[in-house]
Design a protein that fits this description.
There is one protein chain. It contains 4 helices and 10 strands; from the N terminus they run βαββαββαβββαββ. The model has no long low-confidence stretch (mean pLDDT about 85). The two termini are about 15 Å apart. It is α+β, with helices and mostly antiparallel strands. The protein has 2 domains: about 1-65 and about 145-180; about 70-145, no CATH class. The chain is elongated and about 70 Å long. Helix 1 (about 10-30) crosses helix 4.
Amino acid sequence: MKMIAIVPGLDRAQARLMADLAVKYTRDEMPRHWRVKRRIIPIWSEGYYGISWSDSYVWFQDQGISAFTMNSLKGKTIPMWVTDEDGKLRSENPKIEQRTRDDGVIQVLIFRRATKPGAPGRISKRKPNGQIAKGNVGVKWRHPGLEPRHFLAHGIRKASSHAGLFIKDIMVIDNDDHVVDYND
């Protein structure tokens, strides 16, 4: 996919400089540990500059996603690091794998089978009469979602601001060269 900024009157040489700057600013806004930063590349031509990426999750990280039930986990064994404050799990199994986080908390590695991803995991809502309220389904095996970060557009806009250029429009184009709806 790619995100481009339309700048009327932009020549190819200046577009290349702007694309390089946009990539630099975008990489600066991405988390330090992301290896995908190296795969964000500049694109440019007369009248536009932008960035391109091949990893689909970059778009989801940028735009955010809603919470969802992870149905694909059904039947799979999931490794989980859990806090073992009282040492109960370590005393039951002295060979259990352990780690100590930077903050000193000891965790152990356990495994859980996701038999029914949509089944209630924890009851967090009840009706006034004590019955289980709707909205508890899938609590246990739900992805919490991601807040949008907008690092792609921020990098492009920051490059434009740095050079004092006016962006007419920002467009997102998928791998089949179709324009994607984009709201910044």
